[in-house]
Amino acid sequence: MLGCLARNAGRLVSKQDLHEAVWGHVAVSDDSLVQCIRELRLKLRDDDHRIIKTVSRRGYRLDAEPISRLHEHAPRDAAGATSAPRAVAGRLAVLPRWLLVAGLSAIAFAALAFVPLIANGMRHPLAELANWFAPQDHGIVPNPDVERITALAVEKQLPLPAFRVHAPANDVPDSVRRFLGVWVSDEGWINSHRQFMMIVTSVDRDGVATGYLVNGPAMPHSRTPGPAFSGGFTGHVLDDTLRYDGNAGLHSASITADGRIEFKLIFREGGTGVVFLEPLWTLGRSGRVARNQT
């Protein structure tokens, strides 16, 4: 996403162009785009939207100008005239394509080579290699739990997005904060067994919840065919149920008496899908971390 904006720095990039550049032929909602922009602004500390501008109902613009390679040898005081965000965007714009390809190839090789080791419960080398290339901040989730989440995602063929779980404010009700965390299916969607994960990264006192929905590859009886995919969502917690109205239909998540989540998808064309999710990592009711070690 940032690479696409950097290549068009100073110019409007439409929502459609961003969808095609980032997700290609994979169908995702605008919520995924909004969530991705939100994460970029977080990484760039762009709280006031001075770096990434929103053009209402049209798209986004990176307020930066590419710099040439010659500027890397300019005097230090001259280079200081360019702000840090502009310099970062410029370097991304001129980054050699072979370097990107080499990095992605190394990550893919590591994934193929070490999947058997991951399945046997060893440390997750793919996560370590990816973190070496681009360290990630997962917020309040401890590193051992991140490794466990990543390893399980690989085992279930779930494309784990780059997520960051934010600590809830003190005034967030318990009925809302208990959704915060990482939830994953055991046997998958009922009848199809397609694996599923829900990551709730932030909640607020008004009941607004944001995060990601992650589906594994389609199984023989899956209603929707296709490869594994993930997408961002923004929902609302009301009457102890988190609801999100997406492209496929109405999504609802309710916490059961035994601490699981009953997740339902009511399709727009009719029919309902159901999957039960286990708490892989959650923030406990009292504020303590609750872990599912099974």
UniProtKB/TrEMBL annotation:
Source species, domain of life: Bacteria
Domain OmpR/PhoB-type: 1-64
UniProtKB keywords: DNA-binding, Membrane, Transmembrane, Transmembrane helix
Chain residues forming the annotated DNA-binding region: 1-64
Keyword Transmembrane helix in annotation: yes
TM regions (residue ranges): 98-119
Designated name of the protein: Winged helix-turn-helix domain-containing protein
